């Protein structure tokens, strides 16, 4: 009887709903049934758990073959080398899973899959930071948007002096692709963008550092405020050591119109012994700012930093970088950059190179080499790459005249204290190929004369100076540095197809006296001349023919190290001729082929010579 009553009531409700719909001119009885279920009078249909969900990412395959007819001593017994994988410590496969549970809440995770295949077994699965899973989520409220990032690797930037990588002035060549280079709509788009803007699109990691740990963000807060807090590990204190070593940082920023001001802090601290008695670390506190008007902009960062290791405790020193940029007319602008970074300011997770303080190795590094540590010496660097224990001025200009776009840079700088009796310099023409001579690790003091060191995808050389102070071993005079850079980009059409030609010239010197321009005589301790010419011809929207020609000349004077046999100083030259093709396979995939013939030798140091070729094939797929 009760069952019949319940059934009768149920039918009565359905019929009454249908009657109301009919009276209102609605004849679809299914609407009344749907409303009945959604009203809670009967078990509900489950609502969708996700409003949105997507899967994307990339896959990168890289094969490299090298054959040398002349080789450094450690490669003489293996002049041929076939390598499949990536020794840049970038995952071959990245999957991004992203979704949202409501209009205000979203989440995502990055899955990194990386197969080093070095033959070292289980130990090769850990390289510095642990590659794995990164998780992040965001929730928007009336007072702001709050984001959490945690897990494996998160690419992030606070400010130039605290946690960021150097972007420079976009004076580089395009022939050798980076692991983070994206595909473009057409193969020509990459070179067209570089010609027009002097830069190109990069993925989210460009200019950012790798960080493992917890990052909390608060954005769009009332009155233009935002804040960041981060705690975890960087590349320099990663690893699996049980001894605590961590990094922490934060930022509070105030935006007003096109301007902003922020307060930033970054610290690293590690124990040097298992008893937690000896420590090493750094601390940097700065304020970053940018004030922008229609034709004028001032931006920079001012702060202080300090470092310590064991019983050595440096006092605090200043860190100053100020840029003023003026648009003189539509196709002409000028920038002036003033900087001063005290030797006490040390931070290998920032845009400047540490050239003043030798930091101890921290973290459990399985390879017994310090990962990604740059030179601790007086460094000769491209314009825009800052070095501590240095003050200077840069002038940069860019102007466009029809199909010719030109950039010119001038730099003059001086060391603040005499802390090193060495000079370091780069070999940009065959830089990546020299780095391939040492796969996976970042060794220092290697090569035929134990004067080469690898940092990531490049190699630098260390040159000792002569006649040091007999008591301290430091130079008797201050060192000064000059550099000129010329960057030309030209576009023309041949047979109805676009041709892009780029030239990059760099002319630098280091000497014991102040000079307004680069010293081109033997009065300079060291002179470096780099010439790189490249041409890209669009055979079709899907194929670009790529070509490269490079030449470098490096000459030292007799106030530097001389060879024991020849009794002459450094006298190096290197050349490279290369060709290749960019081929579009489909909407999201591309094939990139490169063939390089290379040689380098030192006329004074007989064991410093190499000659051969390198072939590479890369497939990159975005989905």
Characteristics:
single chain; mainly beta; 49% strand; 28 strands; 4 helices; four-stranded mixed sheet; 22-stranded antiparallel β-barrel; globular; 623 residues
Topology:
Layout: H1 2-23, H2 29-38, E1 52-70, E2 80-84, E3 93-100, E4 105-113, E5 133-141, E6 144-156, H3 189-197, E7 209-219, E8 225-233, E9 245-256, E10 259-271, E11 279-292, E12 296-309, E13 312-313, E14 317-329, E15 332-341, E16 378-379, E17 390-401, E18 404-415, E19 422-426, H4 431-435, E20 452-455, E21 458-464, E22 480-494, E23 497-511, E24 526-540, E25 543-556, E26 571-586, E27 589-602, E28 609-622
Parallel strand pairs: 16-19
Antiparallel strand pairs: 1-2, 1-3, 1-28, 3-4, 4-5, 5-6, 6-7, 7-8, 8-9, 9-10, 10-11, 11-12, 12-13, 12-14, 14-15, 15-17, 17-18, 18-22, 19-21, 20-21, 22-23, 23-24, 24-25, 25-26, 26-27, 27-28
Helix pairs in contact: 1-2
Structure characterization notes:
The chain is mostly beta strands and 623 residues long. 7% of the residues lie in helices and 49% in strands. The protein has a 22-stranded antiparallel barrel. Strands 16-19-21-20 form a four-stranded mixed β-sheet. The model is unreliable at 5-30, 35-39 and 363-372 (pLDDT under 50). The protein contains four helices and 28 strands. It has a domain at 1-46.
């Amino acid at each position: 009887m009760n069952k019949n009553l319940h059934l009768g009531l149920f039918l009565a409700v359905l019929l009454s709903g249908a009657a109301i719909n009919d009276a209102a001119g609605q004849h679809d009885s299914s609407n009344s049934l749907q409303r009945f279920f959604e009203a809670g009078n009967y078990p509900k249909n489950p609502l969708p758990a996700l409003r949105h969900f997507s899967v994307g990412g990339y896959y990168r395959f890289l094969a490299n073959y090298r054959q040398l007819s002349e080789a450094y001593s450690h490669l003489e017994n293996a002049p041929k080398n076939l390598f499949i994988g990536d020794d840049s410590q970038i995952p071959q496969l990245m999957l991004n899973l992203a979704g949202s549970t409501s209009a205000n809440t979203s989440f995502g995770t990055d899955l990194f899959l990386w197969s080093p295949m070095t033959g070292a077994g289980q130990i090769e699965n850990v390289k510095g930071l642990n590659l794995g899973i990164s998780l992040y989520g965001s929730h928007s409220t009336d007072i702001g948007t709050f984001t959490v990032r945690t897990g494996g690797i998160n690419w992030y930037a606070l400010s130039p002096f605290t946690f960021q990588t150097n972007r420079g002035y976009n004076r580089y060549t395009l022939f050798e692709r980076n692991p983070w280079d994206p595909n473009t709509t057409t193969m020509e788009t990459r070179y067209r963008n570089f010609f027009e803007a002097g830069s190109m699109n990069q993925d989210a990691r460009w200019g950012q550092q790798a960080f493992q740990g917890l990052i909390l963000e608060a954005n769009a807060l009332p009155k233009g405020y935002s804040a960041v807090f981060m705690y975890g590990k960087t590349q320099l204190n990663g690893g699996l050591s049980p001894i605590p070593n961590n990094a922490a940082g934060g930022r509070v920023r105030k935006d007003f119109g096109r301007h902003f001001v922020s307060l930033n802090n970054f610290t690293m601290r590690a124990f040097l012994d298992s008893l937690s008695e000896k420590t090493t670390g750094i601390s940097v506190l700065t304020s970053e700012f940018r004030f922008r008007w229609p034709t004028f902009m001032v931006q920079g960062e001012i702060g202080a930093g300090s470092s310590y290791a064991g019983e050595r405790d440096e006092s605090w020193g200043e860190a100053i970088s100020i840029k003023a940029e003026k648009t003189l007319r539509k196709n002409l602008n000028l920038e002036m950059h003033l900087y001063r970074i005290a030797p006490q300011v040390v931070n290998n997770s920032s845009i400047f190179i540490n050239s003043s303080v030798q930091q101890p190795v921290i973290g459990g590094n399985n390879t017994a080499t310090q990962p990604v540590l740059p030179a601790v010496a007086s460094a000769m660097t491209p314009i825009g790459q800052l070095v501590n224990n240095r003050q200077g001025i840069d002038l940069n200009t860019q102007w466009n005249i029809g199909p010719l776009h030109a950039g010119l840079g001038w730099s003059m700088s001086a060391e603040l204290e005499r802390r090193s009796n060495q000079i370091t310099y780069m070999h940009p023409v065959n830089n990546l190929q020299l780095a391939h001579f040492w796969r996976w690790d970042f060794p220092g003091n290697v090569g035929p004369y134990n004067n080469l060191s690898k940092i990531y995808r490049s190699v630098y050389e260390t040159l000792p100076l002569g006649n040091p102070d007999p008591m301290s071993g430091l130079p008797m005079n201050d060192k000064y540095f000059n550099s000129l850079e010329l960057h030309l980009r030209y576009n023309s059409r041949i047979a109805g197809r676009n041709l892009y030609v780029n030239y990059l010239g760099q002319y630098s010197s280091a000497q014991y006296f102040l000079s307004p321009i680069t010293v081109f005589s033997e009065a300079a301790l060291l002179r470096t001349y780099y010439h790189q010419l490249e041409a890209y011809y669009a055979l079709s929207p899907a194929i670009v023919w790529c070509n490269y020609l490079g030449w470098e000349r490096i000459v030292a004077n007799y106030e530097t190290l001389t060879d024991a046999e020849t009794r002459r100083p450094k006298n190096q030259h290197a050349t490279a001729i290369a060709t290749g093709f960019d081929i579009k396979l489909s909407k999201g995939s591309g094939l990139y082929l490169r063939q390089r013939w290379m040689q380098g030798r030192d006329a004074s140091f007989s064991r410093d010579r190499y000659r051969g070729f390198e072939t590479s094939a890369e497939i990159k797929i975005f989905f």
